[in-house]
Amino acid sequence: MLGLSRVERTERRIDADDLVALALALGTTPNRLLLPGTARRDVGVALTSAIEITEQFAWAWAEGKAPLVAALGGEGPGGWVSSETFSKFVARSRPDEHRPGLPAIAPHLDVVTQVNKLIEELAAERGIQPAILLAMVQVVRAEGLDPPASAESPEAQP
Fold first, then answer.
1. CA–CA separation, 111 and 83 (whole Å)
2. Nearest to 90 by CA among 120, 74, 112, 68
3. Phi and psi of 66, rounded to 5°?
4. Which residue of 18, 58, 111, 131 has the lowest C-beta tally within 10 Å?
């Protein structure tokens, strides 16, 4: 317990082994201990003394869904990140099962191409990066979230 008290008083730093052990003891993940419990897009979080990004983007980065370079201004006009940069990031950050290879994609390339074009168009309309929009879609699917019923939808009418 003395070690934990010293950490709380910032007299002792936590190394990777300590972080994992603490996450296991608390029944959570190291990411949850390192990042806030919210993922708001209008609230910043300091990753280092020199890098602050939104909570939402910090979580997307920590979960391997979006490269940090996008949050720091991107590579091109409007902060866009190239598909090559995004692909390399995913390849370095995610387990293999999250990276379908070309043989798995090839039979569906026409549909994948159409979806990619639609994502780029919708992202441009909203003023966000396609990679971020795709990460948002993945979160919605993973969480099983449904969009709220709008006033014009048949479900919302009496």
1. 17
2. 68
3. -155, 135
4. 111
CB-based contacts of 60-64 (< 8 A; 24+ apart in sequence): 60/132, 60/135, 62/31, 62/34, 62/35, 63/31, 64/89, 64/90, 64/93, 64/94, 64/98
Residue 76 CA: distances (Å) to CA of 12, 81, 134 = 41, 7, 19
Domain boundaries, the chain: 1-34, 37-150
Q: How many residues does the chain have?
A: 158
Contact criterion met (CB below 8 Å) for 44 and 54: yes
Q: Give alpha helix (H) positions in the chain.
A: 2-8, 16-26, 30-34, 55-62, 68-71, 83-93, 102-105, 109-126, 130-143
Torsion, CA 110, CA 125, CA 145, CA 156, rounded to 10? -110
- Residue 91 gets the label, from left (phi > 0), alpha (psi -120 to 50) or beta, of alpha
**20 against 128, higher pLDDT:** 20
Listed residue (88, 52, 92) closest to 72, CA to CA = 52
pTM for the predicted model, two decimal places: 0.58
Q: List pLDDT tens digits, range 57-91.
A: 889 889 888 787 766 666 555 456 677 777 778 77
